[in-house]
């Protein structure tokens, strides 16, 4: 709402030609229009137009009649336009350069009552309409006074003009524009631009951009210059006209503007004060070139369809607009809404279809009631009777500052192999690649039945673009199916007669446009035969043994054809093999490889306490060579005698190690808690208790080894002492530099610090004395590799019992190895079958806010903590109990709603953190270690009710629990998403936590100062189920406010429980996620 507060007073009952008449009365002798060596003053132009108007009235022209006008550039052109308006009719402009078929179609479709033209054109038009020849008629017998609008019965609700735009059927369609529409549009222009004194009209009157120039100038006393037709298409001639006529304002398409600026010198454009571009994507180079010339030219980027009366938003381009120049904010009396497929406002930063409301929304399409009803819809956000929105078919998104970024056309949304692709999104990403000046992407079908994406690029001057490099850059940001299979370099793009891109004229790509790798001839019979099959399928002349099937344009459906070709050749390969070995030489090796492995049997630990030599046969859970075992033993203090066990990592441990090795500084999975103690004795007692807990549990005495090994392993030490370091604060002249706590926090900051994973325990204690506060501080660092949320609670519980001297109540410690062994005992094929059934047809990531980087280090992450309102918490539990489900199911569905609205998808995938202890492990609730696992959850929301999606999600989560220890990498491989693209970039962690504090007597004298959570995912929601209440921790990368994210979730789950109570059959996608404040901002504030 706040983005749309654009209301401004304007003369609502005034006609557009009356604004001109008022100006003519104010400045009768000023020059109104010039053509060649002739000029007309305001008074003379008004008199001539009046005589023509009275002539048309005498012919019987009435309000809402249409009068066609087809004239060459001339003074008569302006007389004709104004004369038609003054007579009460709507003018229908025709460009004499149009093909005769188009002219005939418009004349027939518009149904004009008369035709204004010139003697040289009358035969070409071949019309039987009453014709008025403007070049030989002076209408001297008619009055020079302004026609009386009241006598004519003319109001601002009557038509001013009908302009034809291209139609999807191949025939143009007429847009009916009323006087109030163009008056509001012109008035907004007067409020926006100060430099309409002398304007050069380049566009044809058949395009609505001419209205901006004509009425923007003639309603404020400026002079309109009409160059000859030959000049309008010649940049050098345009520059001469700008200089000779001291033009102050120019409106044109961006590509022409760039040509002018590249040719211009400072003197040639010295008079220009405003350069307005519209009709195409605004190029950032325009502003750069203006700065290079040192000219005081204000550059404006306008946006708006004919159906919204010339323009709807405007943006003044600044030097910091390096990539995609915004289209700005709504103009006066215009509202812009960016909506999803359910006609709900999308959040800031999320793409949706641009809808335009306000006074500029036109009457609709002439004699096309069905199309008008489809594109002009009731405005659900307006309180005015009959208010409508125009569905532009354009895709855009709100930026945080209230400007809009244009992303492309719905018309350029193509369906390729079952996936809907926004070509504008690909073009935007390409335009951001170094060296690319402009990019266009189209879907071509040069081979029948084989549609593919082809990119056309204009390189920057002196830059040589390489298809393989462009493909590699796009692969970091776009799904595999969105990456063009060919990249064609062009010096210029073909244009239509009106100066816009002619997509039909773009050439077919040749072999040089394909992103192939360095060529190496296939080797051997198998590779050679396989290459021939690839060449035939992909339509290529040759294939390198190092080429990648999907980089060459292959896709999932083509992979099926490939498998059939291979079968005919006597070779067996399945779809999974094709995706896992897409390089030709690897695929050839896979064809020959043996598949299948025997199931793993779980044996007991064979290492005895008196063991002196470790050999491979003593390690039943892992296969290591003697050399590898010796390497591992060499890392353990005390050697073999201090090794209790060696076994593989759990699935999530593997992922944690991957990220640990990826980072060079800091560790996203290193956690640190700060605790204050009132005495050193309490601190020592705490540390002693912690050491006893470490002694009891094998996972807390575990180190991780991977260097020199074929697979990483965890090594359990028999003895591992907690390292305790005394931190000495820095001081100068015996004065502390900052407080002790701040220094200790900086010293132990996980963003800067790393633990040596080769050394157990994976804990570190740093203590410091804080004399100013009479406290002892403990910074306890510990690694996520050995502990999950439940493990930390178990550690605290055991420390609690030890400090109370109640050690006899401690449970019998259980080994972590049992969990590892049982996990290994489940054949990978069991997990693969499940995840392939769930994810095989997912070929695009769920990327809320376009976020795709899941390799972050946690440094750039902000978080917020919120506790749900008790009333809402009770409602959630009440509905969950009624349905017989866990409340976590409702949070999963609510999170899916948030991700759907922020990613533009109605079938979403996100990571869910599973407890990992639900598969019947002995004493699973008491075993310490890393049990949790992250696995993908898929929730489809399209066309499904609230109750149905909740029931389906419950069933899917129950099925997922049977695979809770499947490796995440395995699950992702079963999807259709091709690395390095992630399957998902958002996480949900629903966990049960204790809400009460520990025993007050035990913890008296201790207080928790900080305890942070970290994540490498760009969006993470952690829900703590506290028994009665719920608390939320939302974490998000820079640029996404975590509080805003939490409010989306709260709005979503509030809507869910309300719908369950009152309307469970309501479609889930019809529920809002936007809080009232953001909805106000989007619908009103951004239109201010």
Number of strands: 42
Structural class: alpha/beta
Number of helices, where a helix is a run of at least 4 consecutive DSSP H or I residues: 33
CATH architecture of the largest domain: 3-Layer(aba) Sandwich
Radius of gyration: 36 Å
Oligomeric state as shown: single chain
Could you give the order of strands across the largest sheet?
2-1-10-9-11-12-13-14-15
- Low-confidence stretches are 594-600, 996-1001
- The shape, in one word, is elongated
The CATH class of the largest domain turns out to be Alpha Beta
According to CATH, what is the topology of the largest domain? Rossmann fold
Q: How much helix, percentage-wise, in residues?
A: 25-40%
Question: Roughly how many Å apart are the termini?
Answer: 9 Å
Total domain count: 5
Strand content: 15-25%
Keywords: Phosphopantetheine, Phosphoprotein
Organism: Xenorhabdus szentirmaii
Family: Belongs to the ATP-dependent AMP-binding enzyme family.
Pfam families: AMP-binding, AMP-binding_C, Condensation, PP-binding
Q: What does this protein look like?
A:
- It contains 33 helices and 42 strands.
- It is α/β, with parallel strands linked by helices and about 1100 residues long.
- It folds into 5 domains: about 15-330, 3-Layer(aba) Sandwich (Rossmann fold), CATH 3.40.50.12780; about 410-515, ANL, C-terminal domain (GMP Synthetase, Chain A, domain 3), CATH 3.30.300; about 525-590, ACP-like (Non-ribosomal Peptide Synthetase Peptidyl Carrier Protein, Chain A, Orthogonal Bundle), CATH 1.10.1200.10; about 615-820, Chloramphenicol Acetyltransferase; about 830-995 and about 1015-1080, Chloramphenicol Acetyltransferase (2-Layer Sandwich).
- It starts with 15 loop residues before the first helix and ends in a 5-residue tail after the last helix.
- A hairpin with a 4-residue loop joins β41 and β42 (about 1030-1035).
- Mean pLDDT is about 90; it is low at about 595-600 and about 995-1000.
- The strands form 10 sheets. The protein has a 9-stranded mixed beta sheet. Strands 36-42-41-39-37-38 form a 6-stranded mixed beta sheet. Strands 16, 17, 19, 20 and 21 form a 5-stranded antiparallel beta sheet that branches.
């Amino acid at each position: 709402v706040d983005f749309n507060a654009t209301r401004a007073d304007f003369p609502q009952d005034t006609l557009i030609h009356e604004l001109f008449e008022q100006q003519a009365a104010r400045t009768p002798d000023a020059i109104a229009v010039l053509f060649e060596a002739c000029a007309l003053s305001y008074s003379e132009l008004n008199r001539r137009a009046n005589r023509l108007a009275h002539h048309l009235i005498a012919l019987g022209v009435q309000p809402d009649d249409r009068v066609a006008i087809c004239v060459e550039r001339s003074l008569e052109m302006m007389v004709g336009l104004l004369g038609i308006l003054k007579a009460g009719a709507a003018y229908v402009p025709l460009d004499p350069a149009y093909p005769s078929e188009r002219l005939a179609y418009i004349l027939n479709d518009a149904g004009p009552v008369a035709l204004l033209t010139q003697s040289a054109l009358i035969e070409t038009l071949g019309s039987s309409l009453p014709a008025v020849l403007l070049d030989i008629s002076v209408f001297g017998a008619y009055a020079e006074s302004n026609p009386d609008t009241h006598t004519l019965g003319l109001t601002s609700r009557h038509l001013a003009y009908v302009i034809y735009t291209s139609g999807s059927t191949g025939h143009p369609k007429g847009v009916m524009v009323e006087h109030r529409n163009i008056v509001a549009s012109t008035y907004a222009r007067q409020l926006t631009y100060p430099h309409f004194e002398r304007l050069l009209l380049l566009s044809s009157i058949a395009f609505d951009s001419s209205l901006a120039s004509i009425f923007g100038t003639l309603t404020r006393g400026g002079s309109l210059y009409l160059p000859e037709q030959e000049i309008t298409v010649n940049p050098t001639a345009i520059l001469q006209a700008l200089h000779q006529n001291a033009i102050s304002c120019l409106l044109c398409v961006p590509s022409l503007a760039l040509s002018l600026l590249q040719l211009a010198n400072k003197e040639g454009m010295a008079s220009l004060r405003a350069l307005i571009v519209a009709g195409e994507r605004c190029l950032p180079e325009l502003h750069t070139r203006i700065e290079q010339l040192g000219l005081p030219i204000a550059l404006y980027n306008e946006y708006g369809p004919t159906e919204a009366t010339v323009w709807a938003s405007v943006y003044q381009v600044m030097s910091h607009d390096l990539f995609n120049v915004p289209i700005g904010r709504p103009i006066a009396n215009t509202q812009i809404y960016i909506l999803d497929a359910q006609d709900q406002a999308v959040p800031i930063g999320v793409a949706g279809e641009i809808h335009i409301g306000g006074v500029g929304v036109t009457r609709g399409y002439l004699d096309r009631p069905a199309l008008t009803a489809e594109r002009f819809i009731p405005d659900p956000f307006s309180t005015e009777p009959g208010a409508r929105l125009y569905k532009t078919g354009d895709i855009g998104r709100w930026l945080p500052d209230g400007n809009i970024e244009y992303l492309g056309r719905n018309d350029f949304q193509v369906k390729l192999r079952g996936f809907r692709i926004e070509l504008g999104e690909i073009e935007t990403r390409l335009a951001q690649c170094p060296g690319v000046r402009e990019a266009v992407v189209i879907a071509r079908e040069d081979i029948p039945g084989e549609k593919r994406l082809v990119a056309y690029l204009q390189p920057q001057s002196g830059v040589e673009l390489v298809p393989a490099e462009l493909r590699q850059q796009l692969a970091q940001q776009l799904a595999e199916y969105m990456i063009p299979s060919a990249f064609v370099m062009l010096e210029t793009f073909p244009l239509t007669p009106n100066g816009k891109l002619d997509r039909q004229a773009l050439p077919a790509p040749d072999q040089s446009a394909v992103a192939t790798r360095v060529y190496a001839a296939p080797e051997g019979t198998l590779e050679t035969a396989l290459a021939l099959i690839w060449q035939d399928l992909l339509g290529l002349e040759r294939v390198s043994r190092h080429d990648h099937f999907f980089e060459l344009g292959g896709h999932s459906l083509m992979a099926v054809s490939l498998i059939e070709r291979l079968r005919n050749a006597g070779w067996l390969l399945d779809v999974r093999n094709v995706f896992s070995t897409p390089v030709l030489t690897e695929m050839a090796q896979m064809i020959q490889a043996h598949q299948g492995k025997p199931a793993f049997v779980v044996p007991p630990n064979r290492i005895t306490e008196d063991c002196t030599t470790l050999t491979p046969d003593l390690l039943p859970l892992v296969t290591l060579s003697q050399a590898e075992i010796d390497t591992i033993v060499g890392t353990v203090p005390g050697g073999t005698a201090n090794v209790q066990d060696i076994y593989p990592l759990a699935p999530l441990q593997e992922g944690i190690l991957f990220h640990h090795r990826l980072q060079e500084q800091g560790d996203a999975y290193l956690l640190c808690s700060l605790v204050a103690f009132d005495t050193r004795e309490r601190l020592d007692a705490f540390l002693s208790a912690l050491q006893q807990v470490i002694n009891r549990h094998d996972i807390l005495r575990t180190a991780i080894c991977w260097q020199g090994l074929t697979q990483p392993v965890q090594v359990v030490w028999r003895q591992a002492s907690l390292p305790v370091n005394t931190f000495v604060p820095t001081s100068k002249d015996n004065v502390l530099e900052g407080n002790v706590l701040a220094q200790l926090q900086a010293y132990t900051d996980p963003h800067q610090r790393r633990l040596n994973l080769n050394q157990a325990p994976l804990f570190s204690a740093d203590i410091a004395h804080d004399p100013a506060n009479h406290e002892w501080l403990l910074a306890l660092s510990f690694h996520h590799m050995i502990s999950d949320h439940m493990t930390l609670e178990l550690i605290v519980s055991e420390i609690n019992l030890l400090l109370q001297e109640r050690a006899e109540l401690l449970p019998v410690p259980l080994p972590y190895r049992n969990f590892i062994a049982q996990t290994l005992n489940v054949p990978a094929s069991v997990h693969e079958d499940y995840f392939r059934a769930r994810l095989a047809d997912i070929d695009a990531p769920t990327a809320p806010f376009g976020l795709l980087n899941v390799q972050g280090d946690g440094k750039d992450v902000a978080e917020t903590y919120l506790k749900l309102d008790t009333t809402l918490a009770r409602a959630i539990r009440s509905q969950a109990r009624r349905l017989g489900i866990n409340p976590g199911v409702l949070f999963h569905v609510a999170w899916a709603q948030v991700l759907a609205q922020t990613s533009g998808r109605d079938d979403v995938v996100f990571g869910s953190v599973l407890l990992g202890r639900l598969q019947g492990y002995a004493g699973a609730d008491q075993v310490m270690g890393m049990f949790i696992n992250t696995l993908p959850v898929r929730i489809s929301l399209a066309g499904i009710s609230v109750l149905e999606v909740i029931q389906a999600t419950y069933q899917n989560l129950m099925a997922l629990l049977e695979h809770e220890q499947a490796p995440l990498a395995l699950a992702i491989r079963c999807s259709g998403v091709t690395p390095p693209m992630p399957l998902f970039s958002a996480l949900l962690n629903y966990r049960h936590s204790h809400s009460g504090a520990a025993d007050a007597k035990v913890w008296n004298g201790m207080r928790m100062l900080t305890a942070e959570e970290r994540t490498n995912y760009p969006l993470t929601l952690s829900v703590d189920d506290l028994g009665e209440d719920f608390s939320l921790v939302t974490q998000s990368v820079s640029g996404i406010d975590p509080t805003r994210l939490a409010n989306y979730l709260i709005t979503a789950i509030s809507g869910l429980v309300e719908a369950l109570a009152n309307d469970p059959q309501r479609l889930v996608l019809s529920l809002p996620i936007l809080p009232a404040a953001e909805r106000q901002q989007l619908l009103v504030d951004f239109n201010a």
